[in-house]
Design a protein that fits this description.
The chain is α/β, with parallel strands linked by helices and 381 residues long. It has 2 domains: 49 residues, no CATH class; 321 residues, Alpha-Beta Barrel (TIM Barrel). It is built from 14 helices and 12 strands. The two termini are 35 Å apart. Bound molecules: (3S,4R)-3-hydroxy-2-oxopiperidin-4-yl beta-D-xylopyranoside.
Length: 381
């Protein structure tokens, strides 16, 4: 028997002994060595051994069977609400910090001061629970640090600031953050590069994008680097503009590995709002044709809450989740699906889109919704 095996048996016995729910009863998934492994009675031996897997029903177990990551954004409930944390680790094998790695959070005080406590805790949680992390994000026009947006810069001095930030943040988590949203929402709704509203675009110009990707690659050569944006799921000027940008950057040898489709959808009164499965497959393949991996990075599908959504609208929402997952599974380049939150109780939607909500997989009491079942079924569960 190998040393590792002995250690694992020992850990297993200790876990079982410590647990009120005796996993050796064979029915519990409460005491896992990792979420895909657990302790069970081996009928051929009078002791507990590590077996795989007992919980075949979580989203993460199902996604892993298709070599996909399924995840959620972790916001204010992370670390403060035990049900949130329990649900996060039970269901998901990748996590994105909803806010804690944005400039205003991680580097909001001054150039010399970083605030790593919250992101450190999330990365540690992910590692302890066999989950990957999607870092979010390194250059964005929103939630920037006020010392950056209010500072007096030249293109050269602001480029230094951007490079230093990326070297510090990506470098700190080198080898521990699998995917990074390097540049977020650089293109506006009319397909133009944001200049007036982005300090990066205004002061540095379009070259900040290339600078950010090169700095990220230098800081962690193994991280998957993404361009992330919204409304790319639909044909139109924004999608075309993002395609042209990424095509140009790839041709210039800029290190970009992944396109992130945020996928914030809204069900309309006629039930429309989520592209068809074929339309999603087509756009995923369009960007995959540039040599990019595909991720769905901030998925939520909101419905009306006042007045309440009709049964048909709720059905369209459920179908929408199924459609998105099916489309990802149909495209080999699509590796990752992240929902923008866990529970409707803490979603950004009601605050941003008044009259809309209920956009996620779990209700305000962390009950699984029909949307959860749709995702589970689409994953083969
Ligand atoms: C949102 C968060 O969910 C909110 O908590 C925060 O107040 C504002 O930002 N696109 C993005 C995300 O890339 O970072 C945004 O997250 C939602 C839109």
């Amino acid at each position: 028997m190998s040393v590792m095996r002995i250690i694992r048996l020992h850990m297993c016995a200790a876990l079982v002994a410590a647990s009120a729910v005796a996993a050796c009863g064979g029915a519990s998934d409460a005491t896992g060595v990792s979420p895909e492994k657990t302790c069970q009675q081996d009928p051929t031996q009078a002791k507990c051994v590590v077996v795989t897997p007992v919980d075949t029903t979580s989203l993460r177990t199902l996604a892993a069977r298709s070599n996909r990551f399924i995840g959620a954004a972790a916001g204010s409930l992370f670390g403060t609400n035990p049900t949130f944390d329990a649900t996060l680790k039970r269901e998901f094998n990748i996590v994105t910090p909803e806010n804690s790695m944005k400039w205003s959070s991680i580097h909001g005080v001054s150039r010399a001061v970083y605030s790593f406590d919250a992101p450190d805790a999330l990365v540690a949680f992910a590692e302890a629970n066999g989950m990957k992390v999607r870092g979010h994000n390194l250059a964005w026009h929103n939630q920037n640090a006020s010392w950056v947006t209010n500072g007096t810069w030249t293109a050269a001095t602001l480029t230094d600031v951007l490079q230093e930030h990326i070297a510090t943040v990506v470098g700190r988590y080198k080898g521990r953050i699998a995917q990074w949203d390097v540049v977020n929402e650089a293109i506006d709704d009319s397909g133009k590069l944001r200049v007036a509203e982005s300090v990066w675009g205004r002061v540095i110009g379009p070259s900040y994008i290339e600078t950010a990707f090169r700095a990220a690659r230098a800081a962690d050569p193994d991280a998957i680097l993404a361009y992330n944006d919204y409304s790319l799921e639909f044909p139109g000027v924004k999608q075309d503009s993002a395609f042209a940008l990424l095509q140009r950057l790839k041709a210039a040898g800029v290190p970009i590995d992944q396109i992130g489709f945020q996928a914030h959808f809204q069900i309309n009164a006629d039930g429309s709002g989520v592209p068809s499965k074929q339309a999603l497959i087509d756009v995923f393949n369009r960007f995959a044709g540039l040599g990019l991996k595909v991720a769905i990075t901030e998925l939520d599908i909101r419905v009306r809450t006042s007045p309440a959504a009709s049964a048909a609208e709720l059905a369209a929402q459920t179908n929408g989740y199924s459609t998105v997952v099916q489309a990802c599974l149909a495209v080999p380049a699509c590796t990752t699906i992240v929902t923008w939150g866990v529970t409707d109780a803490a979603s950004w939607v009601p605050g941003t889109f008044p009259g809309y909500g209920d956009a996620l997989l779990f209700d305000s009491a962390f009950n699984k919704k029909a949307t959860y079942t749709a995702v589970k079924t689409a994953l083969g569960g």
